[in-house]
Structure prediction request, 84 residues.
Amino acid sequence: MSEQARLRRRISAVQFAAWELHLYLDSHPNCAEASKKLAEYRELQKKLKAEYENQYGPLNETTRDTSRWAWISDPWPWEAEANE
Prediction:
């Protein structure tokens, strides 16, 4: 496996862990340990993405906002702007 593929795999693993922590915090909003770990994973994700983009160019992917309450700011499927 190339170094580029290893780095992409690492980025994917960190993104997955951040998303899982985000989901966990939806049902356990007062868990300080999970909140701290989520912040650590977000920071690591930014660092790994910057490293990848410096070496190999931009990642062509859509990123999810993993902030704890991001889901409530998106339009719901029945809202007009969601269907445009």
Notes: Helices lie at 3-27, 32-56. The two ends are 41 Å apart (CA to CA). Residues 1-57 form one domain. DSSP finds two helices and no strands in the chain.
